[in-house]
What does this fold into?
Amino acid sequence: GAVVSQHPSRVICKSGTSVKIECRSLDFQATTMFWYRQFPKQSLMLMATSNEGSKATYEQGVEKDKFLINHASLTLSTLTVTSAHPEDSSFYICSASPQGGAINNEAFFGQGTRLTVV
Amino acid sequence: AQKITQTQPGMFVQEKEAVTLDCTYDTSDPSYGLFWYKQPSSGEMIFLIYQGSYDQQNATEGRYSLNFQKARKSANLVISASQLGDSAMYFCAMREVSGGFKTIFGAGTRLFVKA
It folds into this structure.
């Protein structure tokens, strides 16, 4: 099956620094990728839709200046958590569907990134 | 308003028995897809089964089947012959054509399989 690779799997950073998380589709092209955030024992909350070659679409309540998304190619989207603070500590996970996604296209997920801000 | 509702925060099942995880959804879009994912403690999301809104028959994938009742807007997951490795979080999710193909998740149900 299709593979989405997310890196790093774990990161610990100091408060005030920025962290970049990469999401790559390894064997298919994805015009659209999605970024989710998951707090412990909670569901996946959609943060934003990453669109190749254009600006990301953020969900209500998500700070676009805090969570910068760049989708520079059909196989790579990055999420940068800027000026991270302890409350940004969470599990971040990306997903992608093959280009021309249809309603029944399975969304493939990255392995997730556990961010801890100290 | 909640689009996906999973009312069972936790469920227990005896090994080798069947278990049903409930999911109801809300949409006015005639074209949508319903998914179930398993999330073990490692955090990865594992796709289990898919049901399209126009599908006439209930989806089945090995030990997983989806009890799709369109009029009631429910899409319950049935796991037959539970195994210890089935212990995990289970998420019901939906994708609507009108929603730009983004996948929206329910709150999840934690399943515990007892030996």
In short: The two ends of chain A are 37 Å apart (CA to CA). The first strand of chain A starts at residue 4 and ends at 7. Chain A has a mean pLDDT of 91.
